[in-house]
From TrEMBL, chains A, B:
<dbReference type="InterPro" id="IPR036282">
    <property type="entry name" value="Glutathione-S-Trfase_C_sf"/>
</dbReference>
<dbReference type="Pfam" id="PF02798">
    <property type="entry name" value="GST_N"/>
</dbReference>
<dbReference type="GO" id="GO:0016740">
    <property type="term" value="F:transferase activity"/>
</dbReference>
<protein>
    <submittedName>
        <fullName>Glutathione S-transferase family protein</fullName>
    </submittedName>
</protein>
<feature type="domain" description="GST N-terminal">
    <location>
        <begin position="1"/>
        <end position="82"/>
    </location>
</feature>
<comment type="similarity">
    <text>Belongs to the GST superfamily.</text>
</comment>
<dbReference type="InterPro" id="IPR010987">
    <property type="entry name" value="Glutathione-S-Trfase_C-like"/>
</dbReference>
<dbReference type="InterPro" id="IPR036249">
    <property type="entry name" value="Thioredoxin-like_sf"/>
</dbReference>
<dbReference type="Pfam" id="PF00043">
    <property type="entry name" value="GST_C"/>
</dbReference>
<dbReference type="InterPro" id="IPR004046">
    <property type="entry name" value="GST_C"/>
</dbReference>
<feature type="domain" description="GST C-terminal">
    <location>
        <begin position="84"/>
        <end position="206"/>
    </location>
</feature>
<dbReference type="InterPro" id="IPR040079">
    <property type="entry name" value="Glutathione_S-Trfase"/>
</dbReference>
<keyword id="KW-0808">Transferase</keyword>
<dbReference type="InterPro" id="IPR004045">
    <property type="entry name" value="Glutathione_S-Trfase_N"/>
</dbReference>
Length: 206, 206
């Protein structure tokens, strides 16, 4: 059985849990607490030397880190990964955009605000990140203004990757009100058969 | 013919130029100057709304941004993209690692130092990034200590993605001396048939 090492408030982890639910795949969940240093133990660093969750352990013991690489692996042969090479590249284009331009500016403010790290000294950096987060959301908004989903007219792992932290952007001080196309897309994502919420916990946590 | 919108000092652009050279593909190069705002013009934003280079324009006018998504697209059917699904996922794992943990901490200090942006006010942020850059390089060092290349025992786009900014890390104040496995791997990458240097300019710049 697959084992997912995860932190339950992580949007990156939620991406994987969401796809596993959509695919109806069983897995064992090992919940680690970032605040308690549980992703920096020697045991976990042996699994992912970069000390980050999520990381997916396969039946043979191979460990695959990086949420979007995990999505790629799990989505092979499913409707969530398109068959056309250019569509595939556009899916990855939005997943790299998510990790470079979106996540560090939308997820990090949320993490700082929820973990008491938004100190006075960090305020300029927080505000710079929030501004860049709004810029990233505007790129997504403009793209979705004329589209139902990010790529190929249907729900793919590009949508899953971007949904994870976009739908909780307000928790990082970035309200979604200025982005009506994003709001409509969030509803389309939530309406997908098999959708689960970010705080839905698996049946068999360890 | 393919058109590559690029900034010639960009490691992200170099990734694409390197793969195009390895593949022996002809292309038209449009060199844009970031410092002059040439990636923020209405004309370029119509091609890549995120206002970043590189971006690859295909024969039919489709534009594909994000260096690592471009590598994926160009490498299909070539020896630089493995055929096994798990190897593919591990290639992407290192490419996402590159964009999230490596590039912002290895490339950004280099950019700041080369463009007069390493101000006194930015010094703490610069030093934090350099520390995180060293941590990212240590992860690569440990991985390469027992391997010739990043994934599947051979040269793939994971190596190309990581080579681009690693080999000029010292220009961002991160000397490579503490990383002997990386140094040996840099030599193996340079020894690949068709390799070009970062400052090799295409024959037909516009």
């Amino acid at each position: 059985m697959l084992t997912l090492y995860d932190y339950l408030d992580s949007g990156n982890g939620y991406k994987v849990r969401l796809l596993l639910a959509l695919l109806g795949r069983d897995y064992r969940l090992v919940a680690l607490d970032i605040d308690k240093g549980e992703t920096r133990t020697a045991e976990f660093l042996a699994k992912n030397p970069n000390g980050r969750v999520p990381a997916l352990e396969l039946e043979d013991g191979t460990v695959l880190p990086e949420s979007n690489a995990i999505l790629y692996y799990l989505a092979q042969g499913s409707p969530y990964w398109p068959s056309d090479a250019l569509d595939q590249a556009q899916v990855l284009r939005w997943m790299f955009f998510e990790q470079y331009s979106h996540e560090p500016n939308v997820a990090t403010p949320r993490y700082w605000l929820r973990h008491g790290l938004a100190t006075e000294a960090r305020k300029p950096q927080l505000e710079e990140k929030q501004a860049q987060g709004r810029a990233a959301l505007q790129v997504v908004e403009d793209h979705l203004a004329s589209r139902e989903f990010m790529v190929a007219g249907r729900y793919t792992i590009a949508d899953i990757a971007l949904y994870a932290y976009t739908h909780v952007a307000d928790q990082g001080g970035i309200p979604l009100k200025p982005y009506p196309a994003i709001a409509a897309w969030l509803e389309r994502v939530r309406a997908q058969p098999g959708h689960i919420a970010m705080d839905a916990v698996a049946d068999t946590p360890v």
